[in-house]
Amino acid sequence: MKIITKIINSNNKTMKKIFACLSILFSLFFLFLVYRAYVVNQPCKHQIKIVESASKFQINNEILNRFKNSLKIQTVSYGQNNQNFSALKDFISFIQTEFSDIEAYKYAKLDIINNYSLLYKIQGSDLALKPYLLAAHFDVVPADGQNDNWKFDPFSATTDEGFIYGRGTLDDKSSMLGQLEALRIFLKKNGQPRRTIYLAYGHDEEASGYQGAKSIAKFLGNTTLEFVLDEGTMIVEKVFKGLDTPLAYIGSTEKGYLTVKFFVNTTGGHSSMPNPEESAIFIVADAISKMKKNKHPSFLGYGPETTLLTRIATNLGFIKRVLLSNIWIFRPAIEFILSMNPTTDSLLRTTTAVTIVRSGVKENVLPSYAEFYVNHRIHSLQSCKEVLDYDLAVINDKRINYEIIDCSEPIKTSSIESLGYSIIEHTTYQIFPGVSAVPSIMIALTDSRFYTNLTENIYRYLPIRLLNEDLKRYHGVDERITTQGYEDMINFYYLIFKNTDDAHLDKTRELRNEL
Ligand SMILES: CCCCCCCC/C=C\CCCCCCCC(=O)N[C@@H](Cc1ccccc1)C(=O)O
Ligand SMILES: [Zn+2]
Ligand SMILES: [Zn+2]
Questions:
Q1: How many structural domains does the chain have?
Q2: Quick one: how far is CA 119 from the chain centroid?
Q3: Which residues, by Cβ under 5 Å, contact ligand 2, an ion?
Q4: To test the ligand 1 pocket, which listed residue (205, 408, 449) has its Cβ within 8 A of the most ligand atoms?
Q5: What pLDDT digit, counting tens, does each position of 7-49 carry?
Q6: Cα–Cα dist 4/12, whole Å
Q7: Across-strand partners of 134?
Q8: Do 30 and 87 have their domain in common?
Q9: What ipTM did this prediction achieve?
Q10: Are residues 391 and 263 located together in one domain of the fold?
Q11: Would you tell me the Gene Ontology cellular component terms (predicted)?
């Protein structure tokens, strides 16, 4: 300020002219940034929710108890080919008993794929319309981690203050049971659908999906689908400060996946004569520390997160809207801010999580072996190989070996102009008025990755409203869903069946015009 005052008060006309020109240029540039934020970056038609909300069904105790009973069956996956197979069989019997009417429906067929996965097909009346597929899975992650102190037994399906607590309430039994309840209502009210429906329920999604969804995809062979809707991101409030509008994040792309085991063999010995340079544990600890300090690079401004953040900008206040509408110039500042929140940081880059560390056999023995597992979620602009090469460069220690445990390349981004996206968006506005939909990045893997040969239109989206702090309940403690949330889910899937049946390709634009 002192410099500006000095220039204004000085007799130096040249300085004054330069200052005046710079002030004009800065003002024009600022106006340009504001123009881009408020004129160029408009809430696109997708985000204008003028859709009438639909009449909703009330769920009764029978439907609620059926869902709760499904949660009590402990269909736990511990790893590939390491599952509670008897519980999976019990669950399949439960579903076949509780939804025997669907299986018996004259246009319905149920195939049990690879012994444990389920594929329902409801034959549509209009063979000119492409079928579509709703996916879910009924296996769950364990709920007995060392520090898992649940409020209630994770498999008791206890109801408390409007919430149903249990492993699988969010991930992913609610969508499976919700779809089946909605289908039962749809068939009763409307009879045979026009468009063929597939319901694909995997039994090992939490153990990679290689036995379940991958086998379902193989069974479907050359079937061409209009779209796939699987579990995924959801309606989340307050993902970051200043974002008060609840946004429906419809995952139109999915990050890749790479798990690498790094390990070292050294000489062991008596712990009374330790050599730090030869310590297997120190060697892996140094490697882990290097990985912590060297996150994978941010791709902000180059990947699908750019579209997402630019759309989010239209729901923010002035400063944040100007910032996020001009990522090209404010990239470093935006990166710094988004990197501080694990959820938003996961949009920017390939994430690195050290999830297992093993070494040692006895407290007075120097271990001769140590290993650690790194789980990466790969940004859509990277590949498994690039991520591994970066890890090896960061570790930079020839003593450390590696083994690739699992790898899945990022999935191609699906169009948001498709019938499938339009219907998911439209249905969201019908069930969740006041919500704005944005195409998002599915930061975890879903079974839908196995369906890329059946359609390009794959969306990962769970129709549930959560608060940001609820996200840690996924695979975490006190996973829960409100009874209202489960009711909304059933109504959402009912309208998916109805809207998909009413809309056909040339109606996409009509649907769009309604938005
Ligand atoms: C500003 C943008 C914010 C975005 C908000 C949405 C944030 C979403 C947060 C969490 C996503 C919930 C994930 C729900 C589905 C999880 C599916 C899952 O658990 N998949 C497993 C599959 C797998 C893969 C390999 C081995 C075993 C299992 C996974 O990804 O770990
Ligand atoms: Zn899941
Ligand atoms: Zn999961």
A1: 3
A2: 23
A3: 171-172, 231
A4: 205
A5: 777 778 888 888 889 999 999 999 999 999 999 998 765 444 4
A6: 13
A7: 199, 229
A8: no
A9: 0.96
A10: yes
A11: extracellular region
